[in-house]
């Protein structure tokens, strides 16, 4: 198959079709964002990507097929203008798109987010003309280009932790006439050289709201990001920063998920077989099976986030028919074994702090107050593993006695996604 005779004309037609489809579905109701979507050539930002094959391999892994203009121009262009997330990188390995190979399994580490979600993010953050914005996670540069088209390049800063990704994104952006401020930086720390910002939008997920983002947002400004964790539970939060150095907001509805910031990704827990021995505790019949939080349903999606908030350092792994809940911080472990009519559970609870206390003791917040929920260990100002940092409902503020600039966050759980995510600090 050969490339279209006039690629730009065909691409413009497909953009218009995509924009009309999103508008009909109610996913694109802002004329300014529609104009940006119709103007930005997404295919310029995705010279290659992976799509899942129809069949898995012999080990049950997804076969990810490379798609480029050289391999299949029709499929490439159609996918570029579909409302689909396009995976562009696995396991941090940058592909050679001149000679790509099929991948079997792997963890996606970069992508071009589906256009409807990109526009939804900018709209949810209430981005308007005249705003200065910080985007965390440049990725392919497509969402950056949409922001530049809407706001002008001078108002857009975008950071990316992967220098190879940023190099490709910068080339595509400049080739399309956009000139935002770009930097190789970890979004966990924002980007001080361009602060303060009116809006900060993260295209990755964090275990907690990074304090630097609150510090770099103007009073009245907003932060939109996704909270996640090692059980792969997700909830989006929209915060408004107040003049007194606090930030407060609510959890947004929906089942949106994003790849974790690389510094917040789940750690390797070692050989699953080493965790496979049943804990010494007495067995009991489980009230629920693992599908309660792993099923592909909206209810399980939200329950998984709530469970993760209670055990923020836990991970799930399966060895044979046995499901293990492993806490690599404290060493606690629970097993779920199939039993007649349900599941049998055993658990061994440890505390990783070495003081012999319960793994569900009452922690102390960095401000000296007492948190009201289980946590793996007693928290101090130097304790980066404190469960309070993964709370889905919080209020951020500057700690007492600390000079301006540094902020911490603590909070509580127990809120449904529809509730105001108010929180407290001591």
From TrEMBL:
The UniProt record lists the keyword Cell membrane: no
* Listed EC numbers: 2.1.1.77
State the signal peptide span. none
> Where are stretches of biased composition, namely Basic and acidic residues?
95-105
Tell me the GO molecular function terms: protein-L-isoaspartate (D-aspartate) O-methyltransferase activity
Annotated region Disordered: the residues are 91-111, 354-426
What biological processes does GO assign it?
A: methylation
Gene Ontology terms: cellular component: cytoplasm
Biased composition annotated in UniProt, kind: Polar residues: 356-367, 377-388, 410-426
Q: Does the keyword Cell division apply?
A: no
Keyword line: Cytoplasm, Methyltransferase, S-adenosyl-L-methionine, Transferase
Q: What class of enzyme is it?
A: transferase
The listed locations are: Cytoplasm
Which coarse location class describes where this protein primarily resides? cytoplasm
InterPro entries, A to Z = Methyltr_grasp, PCMT, SAM-dependent_MTases_sf
The UniProt entry's sequence similarity note says: Belongs to the methyltransferase superfamily. L-isoaspartyl/D-aspartyl protein methyltransferase family.
What protein does this entry describe?
A: Protein-L-isoaspartate O-methyltransferase
Q: Which gene encodes it?
A: tgmC
């Amino acid at each position: 198959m050969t490339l279209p005779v006039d690629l730009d004309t065909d691409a413009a037609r497909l953009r218009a079709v995509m924009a009309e489809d999103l508008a009909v579905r109610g996913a694109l109701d802002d004329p300014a964002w529609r104009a940006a979507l119709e103007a930005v050539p997404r295919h310029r930002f995705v010279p290659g990507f992976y799509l899942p094959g129809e069949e898995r391999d012999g080990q049950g892994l997804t076969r990810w097929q490379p798609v480029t203009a050289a391999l299949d121009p029709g499929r490439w262009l159609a996918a570029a203008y579909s409302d689909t997330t396009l995976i562009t990188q696995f396991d941090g390995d940058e592909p050679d798109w001149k000679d790509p190979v099929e991948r079997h399994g792997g963890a996606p580490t970069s992508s071009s987010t589906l256009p409807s979600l990109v526009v939804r993010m900018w709209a949810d953050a209430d981005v308007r003309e005249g705003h200065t914005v910080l985007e965390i996670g440049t990725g392919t540069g497509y969402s950056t280009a949409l922001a530049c088209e809407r706001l002008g390049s001078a108002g857009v800063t975008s950071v990316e932790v992967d220098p190879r990704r940023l190099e490709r994104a910068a080339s595509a952006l400049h080739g399309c006439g956009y000139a935002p401020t770009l930097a190789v930086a970890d979004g966990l720390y924002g980007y001080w050289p361009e602060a303060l910002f009116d809006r900060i939008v993260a295209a990755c997920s964090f275990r907690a709201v990074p304090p630097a983002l609150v510090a770099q947002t103007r009073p009245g400004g907003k932060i939109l990001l996704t909270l996640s964790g090692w059980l792969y539970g997700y909830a989006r939060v929209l915060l408004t920063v107040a003049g007194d150095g606090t930030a407060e907001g609510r959890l947004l509805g929906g089942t949106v998920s994003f790849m974790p910031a690389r510094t917040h990704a789940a750690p390797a827990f070692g050989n699953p077989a080493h965790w496979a021995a049943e804990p010494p505790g007495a067995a009991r019949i489980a009230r629920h099976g693992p599908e309660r939080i792993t099923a592909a349903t909206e209810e399980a999606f939200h329950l998984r986030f709530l469970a993760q908030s209670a055990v923020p350092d836990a991970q799930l792994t399966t060895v044979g028919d046995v499901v293990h809940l492993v806490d690599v911080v404290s060493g606690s472990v629970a097993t779920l074994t199939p039993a007649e009519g349900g599941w049998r559970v055993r658990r061994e609870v440890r505390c990783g702090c070495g003081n012999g206390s319960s793994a569900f003791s009452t922690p102390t917040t960095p401000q000296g107050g007492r948190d009201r929920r289980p946590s793996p260990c007693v928290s101090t100002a130097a304790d980066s593993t404190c469960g309070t940092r993964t709370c889905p409902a919080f209020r951020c503020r500057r700690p007492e006695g600390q000079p301006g600039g540094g902020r911490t966050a603590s909070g509580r759980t127990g809120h449904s996604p529809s509730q105001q995510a108010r929180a407290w600090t001591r």
